[in-house]
Design the sequence.
């Protein structure tokens, strides 16, 4: 096996609940995610999201929806114990291999399921280590990328609880004001699990150079997302992906960029870069980096090592 790849953003539960398909067999054409594809692609760690877009589910329903997703993850892990396990400690990180076993960690995308900040610990116990406080539209904690609302009073309380429990803020879906609010209040590590460089592709879901610098200053990273409209206008290739990586590397060095593919995150592979038919093809990003002159050890960091460093810092000893 080649590089150990870490994919920092995959809406596995949402995809499986929506399609009802079996994760244990290769993904059908147009779909990108399955256990065989992750194994074949050398993905050694995967972030399985608990996705709660406000506007679909609110209040109790958001919580129920998140419970359903977490139950699906529990069932997947129980069904494939030889290939999948939940990352619970720093030591677990060293057990992950390209080709399996694959470590899974959870990222809550939209904090709507957390009815009160005091409930956050319950989700942490179940494996949530990263929380994107809002999705695209405002919830009771913050605004999202489609508005200009910062952290609310409840959001400040939630963030304080995240800081206390060592849960990492995911800035990907926050607007600039909410990002500023989070960075002013929370002194620790932050990431953007699935966002690209706005300097190359101006889009509200992408990050300004200043935001990328502030993420790097905290030791965090930017997960490059493979959704074509966030990469470029028109045709998107592996070279487009590498240009975004290049941009982050030029700004802050090679230790603060990784992958957060979001493949099957509400889009099919016709919206992925040309050449990416599933998560099994993520190593092609590494091949393209090599063609651009990247050294093998740097490629290994970009494809997985940087996320592993973050996870070692985030997980309990
Ligand atoms: Zn997202």
Sequence:
């Amino acid at each position: 096996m080649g590089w150990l790849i870490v994919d920092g953003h995959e809406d596995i539960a949402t995809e499986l609940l929506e399609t009802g398909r079996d994760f244990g067999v290769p993904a059908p054409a147009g779909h990108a995610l399955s256990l065989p594809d992750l194994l074949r692609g050398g993905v050694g760690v995967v972030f399985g999201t608990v996705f709660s877009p406000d506007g679909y589910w609110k209040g109790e329903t958001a919580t129920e929806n998140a419970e359903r997703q977490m139950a699906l993850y529990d069932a997947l892990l129980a069904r494939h114990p030889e290939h999948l396990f939940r990352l619970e400690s720093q030591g677990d990180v060293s057990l992950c291999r390209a080709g399996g076993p694959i470590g899974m960690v959870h990222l809550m995308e939209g904090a709507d399921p957390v009815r009160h900040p005091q409930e956050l610990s319950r989700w942490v116990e179940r494996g949530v280590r990263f929380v994107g406080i809002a999705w695209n539209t405002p919830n009771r904690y913050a605004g999202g990328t489609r508005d200009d609302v910062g952290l609310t009073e409840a959001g400040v309380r939630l963030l304080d609880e995240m800081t206390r429990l060592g849960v990492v803020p995911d800035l990907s879906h926050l607007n600039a004001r909410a990002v500023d609010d989070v960075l002013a209040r929370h002194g620790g590590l932050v990431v953007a699990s699935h966002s690209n460089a706005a300097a190359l592709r101006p889009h509200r879901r992408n990050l300004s150079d200043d935001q990328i610098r502030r993420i790097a200053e905290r030791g965090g990273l930017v997960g490059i997302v493979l959704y074509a409209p966030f990469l470029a206008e028109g045709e998107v290739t592996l070279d487009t992906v590498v240009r975004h990586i290049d941009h982050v590397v030029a700004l802050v060095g090679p230790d603060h960029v990784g992958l957060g593919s979001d493949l099957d995150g509400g889009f099919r592979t016709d919206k992925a870069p040309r050449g990416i038919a599933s998560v099994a093809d993520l190593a092609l990003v590494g091949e393209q980096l090599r063609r651009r002159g990247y050294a093998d050890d740097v490629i290994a960091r970009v494809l997985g090592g940087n996320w592993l460093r973050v996870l070692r810092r985030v997980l309990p000893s």
Q: What stands out?
A: Residues 109, 173, 194, 265 surround zinc ion (CB under 6 Å). The chain has a mean pLDDT of 95. The radius of gyration is 18 Å.
